[in-house]
Specification:
Two copies of one chain form a homodimer. By secondary structure, chain A is an alpha/beta fold. Chain A folds into three domains: about 35-320, Rossmann fold; about 355-520, Rossmann fold; about 545-684, Rossmann fold, CATH 3.40.50. A seven-stranded mixed beta sheet of chain A has the order 10-9-11-12-14-13-19. In chain A, β4 (about 210-215) and β5 (about 215) form a beta hairpin.
Chain lengths: ~675, ~675
């Protein structure tokens, strides 16, 4: 047995090698489990349960109960799905998503005994700071596809992987394993309707139906008709004993074989026993999330038949754990689509266009230039939640109907599915209103980001420019939210031309991105010579600000929707003989030092934003200037309360972020003494 | 007909008065609709449809289609539910929640023709900036209970109102009307399971089943088995023709009468016709969200039989609209529970306690001192999502089982329900892990806040102190998110004693509040004399910072979980003869000027936070100091990337926010030249 020097070979025979043994059975090729395979899986089950207990007892925390109830599913999948333990990121592998991520010890054990890594490393380092073997499953571990832990998202991720398979012309199958308490999350219903609608039978769902959750019996905590619910959403439901290898295999094999037929997708509801294998904790919900004490662990090893000399190495594990983590495993590589940007479009300054139309047009261009509807073209999809007409993805839908994915009014699941699709090398967009694509799905975007997704979210109707839809539809938190997610870059184009450039830029740059647009039409911003400022010669520069007009005395700093107000204010002031410096920011990030100095040069700044003024660009800019030791008087214009429903121009005026308000703020600064009220430097 | 001078009385008779006419039928008392009532409702239907068209055509936008399909439901409810048009906030009134808030013209029309206000005002000012008649239903309009517009939340809000009724010992009924496309939102399934579990038959749900959504036929956009889905979650399903007044009445009456029995709650699936009443737009999804042109509107008036002289006043409406809004309506009053704080507990400094236990203990105290389980006690409930053991609400659940609401793993619906309960004068808490109570449900909290709710969310396991649960469970965005919601106050107690005081403070202060706690135990912070700093003499002061230790040279500014690290750093530095000033912030808001000066006094600041450093307290503090014209060298310690899974102390160290990192930062500042690198003042 080559995979683990501490593994007791006597049960298997000295030449037994998991990788070689299961190799020819992978892909669920056999009609039924051979006796030999079954015998090996049964024995692995005992060892894997021992490892689950070692991991959690050694860590002093974790979730043994569900790990032990899910174990037969993990063993069958990691042993018999189309996987290559030596090449865990093989592109044609089946994908296995673990939705109830707290059962990580179960997954790590099954993977370890299949040769994906040395199970001893997981036993020693589970939940040790800096180790890849984290408390919830993480992609840092070979074989793990998706970081999870927030329940209810796994099926959505699986659907997203299946959409990617279609887009890429691949035939891999995606399995997702969920908990039963988890079925209380509404997002799951969104995903299963999508899967049923699109006959996504390349997905097989499994539910670990151990009937317990943290607080007790699931039927006490929250009664559910799990099978009826799935059936009502159009799934094929199979109920099996989740510890019966033959029954589970048969269900998996049947669902696997149905891929590509006209069949509905299948969910396997596997009745199991929490804590299965150690009778003292079986069906006891207290072991959902509590580790066994060492003396219990030793009893469990005996109950599991793990009596070989040297099996109980808890003391040694505890001792070596003290030395800290020493395992390094290969990182999960990102799959970067190679995207051609195409030819930028320049909208003339004398025609009113909305940014969202510029986005929709650029999207069609990207599709065409990358031949996304051709066999040798780029894999690319656009997700929609019943708003294509408003968010201007209708042109794309018409041109590329097969690449357009209508998910209905189901934003949570859409966000996760789109994130999972994007992580597979498919250029993936999702377009929605700001309150849905930013505010409603913030946590889904956070999880996508932890998963190194590459999702481009294009939000329209942001800020007060949502107009008549009113306060429930005012997305005025896009800066605070996107900036709270480490890898989520925010773009706020100032006009249709800049929108065009940014869409092309983010399409060809890896990572999660958010473009924020309003609803109104505007004249593209002109340069002082009357040509389009973001025209033919303009090239978008990430992280840099844009000088729209130069002047002296005061800098007006704006972004996105309000850039047009900035231009109008500049012109009004210019007519009065006052020339201010007008700068806009299309990429909200840490700013370049030279840009910060240019903004602060006159010691007087007006910031303008279609965003909550407490958490927006004014605060962020102030903080950066402060860190540089720069000082300035500043007036921050922004949203200070929930705004009314009305025409955007009226709302801007009422809320004090229109050109008139900018003009007033500039004049206030110009007539004030230029020295800020206090300066602590003196006392330093 | 007194209610509207522009209303054509000839159809009704000159003495007809809606308020008087329906008064004795309110509460669905009649076994069936009388012919007289039916005749009046039918005629009102024509007029109300006319008003829907006037509102939307006059505004040039809005949603006539669904308003016209939902109309018979609106008329029956606003005419026959237990309501008082002259006293729209009467406390015993039935509650009517509109979940598909875009059908506001339908609701406004039905309310207007029932005398809640003058329908002409709505026709003139619909969607005019500053008017109460906003694009989506808002509580600014008498009769409207809940601001909506983000779909999928209405049933949750209705459940929350019904929970409030129970807690208050009231017998009002709550109706909620939803769209059919909206049924694609997962949150609805969470709410209906909760309602079924708790036999919440004081709720009646209605679905406007017009079979269309923005993008077309709902069965093309996203096929659903609506009736089967509701049945699978345990509801009684009644299917009726939604334009048949008799059938609708019978269904409503039956469900209304079932309140308080053992029956499951009822959903009425009302088959309707989008655009009903004007055949040219019937069943045309393009009129979901588009206004008729004036010439179409005039055709529609004829089709509706509205041919009275002067009925077509579109031109006059357009003319008077130009003058701006002139309507003022009575504001929706908040219902403030009168809460006794009880006696604070002081935890001794030599015993380790976790903040979450202090929260759980204070909660039990609040329950006891306010007699919440007594008939004459305070109405108070605590919501849980299957985490009571971890979030320490188990003590409350044991003491007050009837006041403890187990919602299962269903955070979206829980947040909305809890918000709605809190808005009814019930002291309402919800406790969860930070990633669920802050990140996952951000948008639900935003909507609660727009609705002036009074929900106290107590989150444990926040920040990196979540420990072994790892990155998917690290809530490091509580400042950025709560601060993006105008009325959501954030509290970050430094130790168990301050936790105790803050729980008592927020319980007795109206408004949405978030308390953020970690997971670890700590010694309560001592004063220099060894007594508890937040002990017997301490009184929590909102908006002020706390001086934990005084010193000179450098200010260390911390909050919440990391206050203990600040104390440890202070002590380590003190041992080396360095005394810094240590200040913590338990209430993150705009700071008091005197506090800001005290923080900046030495021109050297270290901020420490268990939060994303890009959007946290360091940035906010810098911005405030900058606005005051104060300068200082600053080192911001905080979370800069997703953290690992491990013991909190190990994770803090690895991520550079432990006491050692603070000591290093202080020393860096002390050995640096005290002048910031650049100062733009010179050039000003």
């Amino acid at each position: 047995m080559s995979m683990d020097s501490n593994f007791d070979p006597s049960s298997f025979g000295s030449n037994w090698d998991a990788k070689a043994f299961f190799k020819n059975d992978r892909g669920f090729v056999a009609d039924k489990l051979s006796e030999d395979v079954k015998e090996k899986l049964t024995m692995l089950g005992a060892y894997a349960r021992g490892s689950i207990i070692k991991m959690t007892t050694n860590a002093g925390s974790g979730h043994p109960g569900g790990s032990m109830s899910s174990l037969e599913m993990y063993l069958l999948l990691y042993s018999l799905a189309k996987l290559r333990p030596d090449e865990p990121r093989w592109e044609d592998r089946d994908r296995i998503i673990i939705s109830h991520g707290h059962t990580s010890p179960g997954a790590y054990s099954a993977l370890g005994y299949n040769g994906f890594f040395n199970v001893k490393d997981a036993e020693r380092e589970f939940r040790l700071a800096g180790s890849p073997f984290e408390g919830h499953v993480e992609r840092s571990v070979p074989g793990i596809e998706w970081d999870s832990g927030n329940l209810g998202q796994g099926l959505s991720a699986a659907c997203g992987k299946a959409v990617a398979a279609k887009a890429l012309g691949k035939s891999f199958h995606t399995f997702v394993i969920m908990g039963d308490g988890e079925q209380q999350k509404g997002q799951i219903a969104e995903a299963r309707r999508f899967a049923a609608k699109t006959k996504l039978n390349s997905v097989t769902a499994l539910i670990d139906y151990n009937k317990l959750q943290i607080s007790g019996d699931i039927s006490d905590v929250m009664p559910q008709q799990i099978a009826a619910g799935w059936r009502s959403d159009g799934w094929n439901v199979v109920e099996v004993d989740g510890h019966d290898l033959d029954a589970l295999y048969a269900a998996l094999k049947t669902s696997y074989a149905a891929q590509g037929t006209d069949a509905a997708p299948t969910v396997i509801i596997a009745t199991t026993i929490m804590g299965k294998g150690y009778p003292a904790i079986e069906n006891d919900h207290n072991y959902h999330g509590a580790a066994l004490k060492p003396e219990q662990a030793r009893e469990a090893f005996v109950a599991l038949g793990l009596t070989a000399d040297g099996y109980d190495d808890l003391d040694k594990l505890a001792e070596t754990r003290k030395a800290g983590t020493s395992v390094t495993l290969p990182a999960f590589p990102t799959v970067e689509p190679k995207v051609k940007q195409g030819e930028p479009r320049t909208y003339p300054v004398d025609e009113k266009v909305d940014n969202r139309s510029a986005w929709g047009n650029a999207l069609v261009d990207i599709g065409k230039v990358n031949n996304i509807d051709k066999a040798d073209g780029l894999a690319c999809v656009v997700y929609d939640c019943d708003l294509a007409v408003s968010v201007k993805t209708g042109g794309f839908a018409k041109e590329f109907p097969d690449n357009f994915i209508q998910y209905g009014i189901a934003e949570h699941s859409t966000c996760t599915s789109a994130g999972a699709t994007s992580s597979e090398g498919v250029l993936t967009f999702w377009s929605d209103f700001g309150v849905f694509g930013v505010s409603e799905t913030y946590n889904q975007s956070r999880l996508n980001d932890i998963n190194h997704a590459n999702l481009k979210i294009a939000c329209t109707h942001c800020g007060l420019d949502v107009g008549e839809d009113g306060k429930t539809h005012q997305c005025i938190d896009y800066f605070a939210l996107s900036r709270s997610v480490f890898g989520w870059r925010l773009f706020t184009p100032a006009d249709p031309n800049q929108t065009d450039r940014i869409v092309r830029h983010i399409s060809s740059t890896y990572g999660n991105a958010l473009i924020v647009m309003g609803r109104s039409k505007m004249n593209p911003i002109s340069a002082p010579d009357g040509s389009a400022l973001f025209g033919t010669d303009y090239k978008f520069q990430a992280g840099r600000t844009d000088l729209i007009r130069d002047g002296r005395g005061v800098t007006v700093f704006c972004a996105g929707n309000v850039a047009a107000e900035g231009v109008a204010a500049y012109e009004a002031l210019h007519a009065e003989g006052i020339d201010v410096r007008l700068i806009s920011s299309a990429h909200w990030a840490d700013f370049h030092e030279a840009d910060l100095e240019r903004i602060a040069e006159f010691g007087k700044i007006v910031t303008v934003e279609d965003h909550n003024v407490n958490t927006g660009i004014g605060v962020s800019l102030s903080s950066e200037l402060f860190a540089m030791g720069l000082s300035a008087e500043i007036i921050k214009l922004g949203v200070r309360e929930y705004g009314p429903s009305g025409k955007a121009t009226d709302v801007y005026k009422l809320m004090g972020i229109d050109s008139g308000a900018i003009v007033s703020a500039v004049k206030t600064l110009l007539t004030q003494d230029s020295t800020p009220s206090k300066n602590a430097m003196a006392s330093a």
